Amino acid sequence: MPLKLLRFWLPLLLFACHLLAETPQCFRFTWVGAYENHSNIVTETCDSRVGDFNDIPCVEPLVVTPNDTVPDVKALWQNTTEDRDQYLCQMSAAHSCVKYSYIFKGGILNITYMCAMVNASNGCYRQTHENGMQVEACVCTSRLGMIPCNGCSRQRLHDRVMGLALCLLGAYQLLNKFRRIV
Ligand SMILES: *[C@@H]1O[C@H](CO)[C@@H](O)[C@H](O)[C@H]1NC(C)=O
Ligand SMILES: *[C@@H]1O[C@H](CO)[C@@H](O)[C@H](O)[C@H]1NC(C)=O
Ligand SMILES: *[C@@H]1O[C@H](CO)[C@@H](O)[C@H](O)[C@H]1NC(C)=O
Ligand SMILES: *[C@@H]1O[C@H](CO)[C@@H](O)[C@H](O)[C@H]1NC(C)=O
Ligand SMILES: *[C@@H]1O[C@H](CO)[C@@H](O)[C@H](O)[C@H]1NC(C)=O
């Protein structure tokens, strides 16, 4: 009897384990914003745009959009004909999804979506620089099988802003190194 039972339950168990092994996902790419000649984007890299030892987040692939409008992440998520995995990363344990935007006079200049280890609770953090440039980092936790949370438009805005950017970037660079090693 137990053998028969096992034969029935084992595939089910393995299937369940497979499901458990899956992790929620985050969007991962940089939308470069207004871009002169779209056919030139293929020649661009994060190195060429922001350099190596820089505090500015940038994650490949670099993406341009029709009319340079902000990315329609919902369409991206729903587009199964496209290889959307290249725009996603696994939100592994202790990591969050992050959306990092540069905003000037209310207009969004560019956005970097990524997975990162962040020492901050979920929500949006905004920093305004002297020249009027605003940097907004939104942190969230995706749910399995759902559209990654760092695509959504509006999240709670925290008053607390200090420190986050640095802390986030440290983690981001570490992660990047880690990814290169693996
Ligand atoms: C865009 O760049 C491509 C390749 O560099 C070039 O062939 C094309 O003429 C450019 N288009 C415009 C409108 O500048
Ligand atoms: C985003 O815009 C800011 C402000 O113009 C710029 O400094 C930064 O390099 C841009 N990021 C990317 C990845 O192009
Ligand atoms: C781009 O702009 C043109 C002219 O304003 C408009 O007709 C077209 O629908 C826009 N395309 C997208 C994808 O928004
Ligand atoms: C899906 O992606 C492909 C390749 O980028 C594109 O040609 C197509 O128009 C997209 N479909 C939708 C519904 O966005
Ligand atoms: C994380 O943040 C908390 C409170 O903001 C702080 O007390 C703690 O030292 C931080 N940890 C690290 C590793 O930065």
UniProtKB/TrEMBL annotation:
Designated name of the protein: Protein quiver
Keyword set, alphabetical order: Signal
Lineage of producing organism: Eukaryota, Metazoa, Ecdysozoa, Arthropoda, Hexapoda
Domain of life: Eukaryota
Signal sequence coordinates: 1-21
